[in-house]
Design brief:
alpha+beta, Fructose-1,6-Bisphosphatase, Chain A, domain 1, 33% helix
Length: 259
Amino acid sequence: MNEYTTQLRSARLAALSAGNLLRESFNAPRVIDEVLAHDVKLRLDKECQQLICNILQKRHPNYAVLGEEGGSGGEIEWIVDPLDGTVNYYYGIPLFCVSIALRVHGVLQLGCVYAPMTGELYSAVRGGPSLLNGREIHVSTRDHMNQAIVFIGHGSHDGSGESGIRRFMHISSQVCKMRILGSAALSLCYVAAGKLDAYVEQSIHLWDFAAAQVILEAAGGTLEFSEHQDDSLSGSVTAWNGKLPLHEALQLPSTAAQS
């Protein structure tokens, strides 16, 4: 038995419970707490996080919880995104998930991601296999960019829009297809399962990818995170199957060369 088997069972229970609430509420009227320039905050986000916290803290009362909807970290902490893909959920697009990770003394030890509308439960413990509904998964074997399906984010509200769109345009001619799903954790799990081949995002929060990072790496993939200078909880992510020449493909031509 793995050292974190008990904690993984707790994460699965919490993710399934929150996911069931999201699925049952999917066709109900949305209660909006806050509207941002390129995002929306639903009352359901907080309700799901509270449900998750109640389960995890009852089973592991000495662990801290760090999440999108508040909470503070500690030496042993759950990292929670109760609804990754809120805008998708708000517009009735069934691509969203619940994401729960456990970090111990700064090291991610397990991850659990549940997509309730498709019934996909991804999970992994550091050093163990990556699982989808109990079946072992692996990243793709594709090693040429023209075979690849790639996610390139290009957010517009954080100053990364212009460079992100340039990167998107630059790499789109090199790959088979581009996809933007609207959920970071689910996209990374798709890389882990070999459905996508790479994921690149210039501005992302820790809770968006922590659980999926464990799942991706256990499936044989690679994730690089570069913290923002003024915020250790956010930064840029480059993730791929470990086989594509992704860094070379991402190199943008200089402005001088373009003019």
